[in-house]
Specification:
The chain is an all-alpha fold and 414 residues long. The protein is 64% helix and 0% strand. It contains 14 helices and no strands. Helix 2 packs parallel to helix 6, helix 3 runs parallel beside helix 6 and helix 6 runs antiparallel to helix 7. The longest helix is centred in the N-terminal third of the chain and has 44 residues. The relative contact order is 0.07. About 5% of the residues have low confidence.
Length: 414
């Protein structure tokens, strides 16, 4: 009876070794080989796969091919706003028709107003139904432009990074690989922030389109439409701000560390993109991201980078509590001035001030804020005095004159 095969219970590449036919190692499939490959090539392949996945995720978040906005006008969410906008435009047109009918004795001006209102109403209703399709086409164009600018050939940013992972002078340096992977992870975090702020903004402005376009039914007033379009286009074309780093790609080619520097510059641009491109809430979001970064690091370079992306700013607020109204005497005085102006008589304007009771109420309501401002000014003054007291005195500086000391008159020159 022949002996049992001693290698029958062994599986995988170990069985090949047992049978005397070791497999060729291709990077991670077996044990280390002396002919090349082995652990080094396997780890390198894993790094490249991780970098490729991070780059694909960044591209998908900065310029996705699809947005959250409705793609057609028959979308359920968009239909609610479309119905409201169409009925609002028709209601405005009816009001214009009634006003023109009641003032038809004015002749040509009212006919022009009626014609303009009718034409702009038709244009507004047609534009309401076409907004989703236009936004879809613009988004596809932005996505294609972004892909062409950053991943189309060997001179674009992401292609250069992929190429440098193989051929850069520091491609075999573990520290350089760690730096580029860390930079890609940070860039992915900022890209996710851009994605989570840009797409809801596009959705909100697309849904607002019928309500904004309905304002044109009054006779072609397009100021609201222009403001809405500028904000929507700013949201959609915001990723193209990264084109500012394209001229520097060739300068960084061949070094993973320089590629990481370019990615840091892209992070700053993405933060600035949020600051300026996201309407209403952009400065708040960028400031929150800056605060998160500054609370977790003391590195001055990192702090300078996030401050470049989210600069300091002041905010203005509306008074959310009470509104200011005129007293009966001031209201009558204002209307009397309008009447006198109709007869060509100029009335002296009176300066406005709050009544005693209103001034007391305002002082009590704003007392906490006023106290905070006083404390802040006091702290700033104390810090300035401490700095001045600690600074060395300049011996060449003449002494300051004492205002309380009387000065002697200069004797006249003979």
């Amino acid at each position: 009876m022949p002996d049992k095969d001693p290698c029958s219970l062994i599986k995988g590449w170990a069985k090949k070794y047992c049978e005397g036919d070791p497999p060729a190692n291709k990077g991670g499939g077996g044990p280390p080989s002396t002919e090349g490959g082995g652990i080094t090539n396997g780890a390198s392949d894993h790094v490249k796969e991780l970098a490729d996945s991070l780059i694909n995720a960044i591209k998908g978040m900065l310029a996705p091919q699809k947005t959250w906005a409705p793609q057609k006008s028959d979308n359920f969410l968009y239909q609610q706003f479309l119905w409201l906008g169409q009925h609002l435009a028709i209601a405005i047109l009816v009001c214009v028709i009634v006003v023109c009918a009641l003032t038809a004795w004015q002749g040509e001006p009212r006919l022009k107003q009626l014609g303009a209102s009718t034409g702009w109403t038709l244009a507004a209703v047609a534009g309401m139904a076409s907004v989703p399709g236009v936004v879809v086409l613009l988004n596809k164009a932005v996505s294609a432009t972004f892909q062409a600018a950053f991943n189309s050939n060997e001179s674009t940013l992401f292609k250069v990074i992929e190429h440098d992972l193989d051929t850069a002078v520091d491609s075999g340096n573990p520290l350089a690989l760690l730096i580029i992977i860390s930079a890609l992870v940070v860039a992915l975090a900022f890209a996710a922030l851009v994605f989570m702020t840009r797409n809801p903004g596009i959705l909100a402005f697309v849904c607002m389109a019928p309500l904004v376009l309905a304002s044109m039914a009054r006779g072609g007033e397009t100021s609201a439409v222009r403001a809405w379009a500028m904000r929507l286009l700013g949201l959609m074309f915001a990723p193209l701000a990264l084109l500012l780093i394209t001229p520097f790609v060739q300068m960084a080619k061949g070094s993973l560390v320089m590629d990481a520097v370019l990615l840091v510059a892209a992070d700053v641009l993405m933060l600035r993109m949020i600051f300026h491109g996201i309407p209403y809430f952009g400065p708040k979001i960028a400031g929150a991201a800056r605060a998160v970064v500054e609370s977790r690091t003391t590195n001055p370079i990192v702090r300078a980078a996030v401050r470049a992306g989210s600069p300091d700013f002041y905010e203005q607020e509306n008074n959310p509590h009470t509104r200011t109204v005129d007293t009966p005497g001031r209201a009558a005085h204002t209307d009397r001035g309008v009447l006198f102006a109709a007869y060509g008589v100029t009335q002296k304007q009176r300066s406005a001030r709050l009544t005693t009771k209103s001034a007391i109420d305002k002082s009590q309501r704003e007392a906490p804020r006023a106290q905070q401002l006083i404390d802040a000014r006091r702290a700033a003054r104390a810090a300035a005095q401490t700095t001045t007291a600690g600074a060395p005195r300049n011996p060449n500086r003449p002494p300051r004159p004492n205002p309380n000391r009387p000065t002697r008159p200069t004797p006249p020159t003979p």
